[in-house]
Amino acid sequence: MRAGLLICAILISANVCAERYLVTEDGFGNFSAERAEDQESIPVDTAVPDSLVPSTKKEPPSQSTKHEIGEQLDTESKQIQVVEKGRVSLVSENKQAETKKISVFERVYLETERKAKENALNELKKKGVEGTDYDATKVNQVDFVDGDDLARTGGREEVEKAPYFITVDANGNLQNTFYDPVLVGEALDKQRNKKIEYTQARVYERSVLEEDGLALPEGADAIAAQILKSGNKELELYFDTFSKRCCSMLPNILVPKLEMGRSKAFKISDDDLYYRFSEGDSRYLLVALPAESHTNYPLRIRTFIRTFKKKSIEHGVFFPQIVTLDAEKNPLRIMSGPLLKYIEETWTTHGYLEGVFEIDRSENKDEHYLLINTTKPVLRQTSTIETEDPVEIIHMSVGSFELEAILEI
Prior knowledge:
The chain has three domains: 16-45 and 74-122, no CATH class; 141-193, no CATH class; 202-405, no CATH class. Helices cover 31% and strands 25% of the residues. The chain contains eight helices and 22 strands. The radius of gyration is 45 Å and the shape is elongated.
């Protein structure tokens, strides 16, 4: 009985066939296995031919036996080579099937990418762009309009293919505003060509009459002359008092320099030291003005309105006094109490106070430096912006600025 079971086991094992499966991985990292039905199963020989089993007897083989063993070995080696070649070809075909078989999602993605690339190239060809001449960084300024500028010029009704910009209200709702590029372009041209209006301020400087040696005309009214002289004396007194303490004695620190046509940001913080000016202690900002221009040019100053949570101040600003200096840092003009323009905050920037002042590059003045400070009387005051909801702005001893020497075209 045991012998019969042993024979059956040998027969069953002799007919075992290896089934092959193709394992593939899609673009999402998932694996799948499919049976390779198109390939013939290769039998696995578990029995070793008796002729290959080494004999323990050391009998010298005869010539006929040697010949038969050689033929048998040649035949078996050829069969093994055929099987090995079949396996190699099967593996190579399976690898090709692996590389070609992709998931449905990958096919759709590749097809969409190919179509998008083809459409982009066709559009570039229509516009006459060839080879590497295309520059994606070049944009049409008309297609990118600031919301504040557009609010002043007005929008237009929705038209097919009309350019628009998107705004988001306080509740997160999106709103499209369409505009006319031609009207916007004209408005921007007018804005660029608009004559610059300088900010009014009280200017302290040395008397022109005294510098030029001029005298009042004969027969001038005595009372008018007295008023004129008294006014000049008041201005001269403030100027002389300020000049005694400033500004050649300022600490010798690194002075940043402005460049024509490029705005630059500055900050006065609690870490900056005070300087004792004639009208009180104040932190200050000292910058070098562009010296390459020999003609007068406008200088724009923006002082930003910020929230100071530690001091429980919702709207605070450094209200400036502007002083121009010569090459030796001697005062030339003091512009006090300027009537700055209020610009309310937007979703991209803080609100600020803005003023534009003319820098004098003539031989009489030749202004080289700009000093920004504040005074004790100013720190005791506040500014009120008259809007629908009036805004009270506290004058601070710290703040942030943006300065730009405007390059006129």
